[in-house]
Amino acid sequence: MTAPSRRERLRTATVAEIKGGARRLLVDGGVEAVSLRAIARDMGMTAPAIYRYFPSLEALVGALAGDLYEELTALLEAARDGAGEDEVAQLLAMSRAFRAWSVTHPAEFGLIFGAPVPGVTTFVADCTHEDHPGARFGAVFVQPLVELWHRSPFPTPPAEVLERHLGGRLEPLRQSHGAVPMEVAWAFLSGWTRIYGLIAMEVFDQISWAMTDPEHLFELELTTFATQLDPTRPRPSTAGSDPGAGRG
Amino acid sequence: MTAPSRRERLRTATVAEIKGGARRLLVDGGVEAVSLRAIARDMGMTAPAIYRYFPSLEALVGALAGDLYEELTALLEAARDGAGEDEVAQLLAMSRAFRAWSVTHPAEFGLIFGAPVPGVTTFVADCTHEDHPGARFGAVFVQPLVELWHRSPFPTPPAEVLERHLGGRLEPLRQSHGAVPMEVAWAFLSGWTRIYGLIAMEVFDQISWAMTDPEHLFELELTTFATQLDPTRPRPSTAGSDPGAGRG
DNA sequence: CATTTGAGTGAACGCCGTTAACTATTGCAA
DNA sequence: TTGCAATAGTTAACGGCGTTCACTCAAATG
Question: Could you give the CA distance from residue B39 to residue B52 in angstroms, rounded to a whole number?
């Protein structure tokens, strides 16, 4: 483990600058606004120089997507670690952190959670099963669910129903997370579907025709989900649980 | 109401041909593959000629999105009309039809239900509240829910909880659908979130790292939702309700 | 029949990704 | 220290893109 040479330091700095410019363009104008020529212009370079660092624009977009996955995973882990010991509290904190990031980073959310983008698709396809960004991302949610299940099992549909609908179809999940109980897999898939669906609808502006302030619907879904996971929780009608309070 | 002139007939035919070419490109290569020059090439024309019919590429994409909304709405209405009198059966048929269309038309789904696309966004913004594509689309789901609610109310969270989370935030929905009971609004938003979320995850390939055959998870969610709407329904464990049977 | 309207063409401008040939600089080794 | 190889950058060019402009020609209109 020797110190990086001067050349290596310059190179990583340039790579970071290229990614930074790409992200700025992504935020300002969506993925279609990310262009090698614009990035190079902002850096005071010419476009072909970027080919010394990335083999194509698609590869650059894929690398950017990988960084976003890492950024988001770290954010969720921080939210989990700051939520105490209770697994349900951890899941709620992670869900809220995920929504907050998504709403404040719509372009980034669209890149990694929206319709497949050429560069991102190949980046995801090149990952091994365990290091698949979706798997690493899902692990943050699956882990507290597993621990909660072992500590105090939550209600689920009957085992034979789960077996018929999910049995034998969870191999990809097991390849990345080991032997996850079928009930936990169901709780994760069902819960994640609701969280993802609501956030995607909000970020993609698929809900504004029906309601305003989707955060409150999100909190309602969260409390419903939390109650399902832990029926001893205080009901959402308890005073002091008003969602959105204290968050602007 | 006079018969369309020869010129008008030719014009509508050309508009249809342009849209057809645009959709072919959309299906083959995603929205970024839709280009005026490629469309014109396929038609044996030059690109500037299309400006006689659409003011810009974005406007063409927006018009295409409008057609897709209409196509999908008609499909859902047909599914509803073919499902008999029971509202829950109608909702199930519509949900399955929606998923089937989405899975077989991923590019079209991404255009109208994915990250905002410039042309589509302005098209949606130009619609009046009642004719908003999302509203016309949502109406097909809201209507059976309203009728079911009046015929036999389904269980919901307590009224005060709904009031606190949704109260005063459903004006957009009421502007397009009239006085929808808050419980119905909740059931629609909650149910639609799960349907949309699961389908979007499947179409956007956000679930293949965890499981195969997402249709079975979709059917599990559907039966859960149906049981919530109508507790007298046969439980999902009843023989003969195996999801996916007869559709493989 | 004259005129206006509409449809379509070709050239051009400025973007874009990408490749090829070339230059200058850095780092390393004889 | 000198010489070589790797590295980082340049310019020029190709084809594709959306879009505009000036133009032609046929069709509808009076």
Answer: 14
Q: Please give the Cα distance from B167 to B182 (Å, whole number).
A: 8
Question: CB distance from A6 to chain B under 8 Å?
Answer: no
CB A103 within 8 A of CB A203: yes
- Interchain CB contact of A182 with B (< 8 Å): no
Please give the single-letter amino acid code of residue B190: S
CB A164 within 8 A of CB B242: yes
Render each residue's pLDDT in chain B as its tens digit; 248 residues.
456 777 789 999 999 999 999 999 999 999 999 999 999 999 999 999 999 999 999 999 999 999 999 999 999 999 999 999 999 999 999 999 999 999 999 999 999 999 999 888 888 888 877 777 778 888 899 999 999 999 999 999 999 999 999 999 999 999 888 899 999 999 999 999 999 999 999 999 999 999 999 999 999 999 999 999 998 876 544 433 333 333 32
Q: Euclidean distance between the first and final Cα of chain A, in Å?
A: 47
Q: How far apart are the C-alpha atoms of B184 and B110, rounded to whole Å?
A: 28
Contact B204 A114 (CB under 8 A): yes
CA distance A62 to A118: 8
Residue type, A14: T
Contact B211 A173 (CB under 8 A): yes
Q: Could you tell me how many residues make up chain B? A: 248
Q: Which of residues 51-70 of B touch A (CB under 8 A)?
A: none
Return the closest nucleotide (C1') to the Cα of B45.
Answer: C8
Q: How far apart are CA A159 and CA B237, in angstroms?
A: 10
Question: What is the least distance, in Å, from the CA of A4 to any CA of chain B?
Answer: 36
Q: How far apart are CA A182 and CA A168, in angstroms?
A: 10
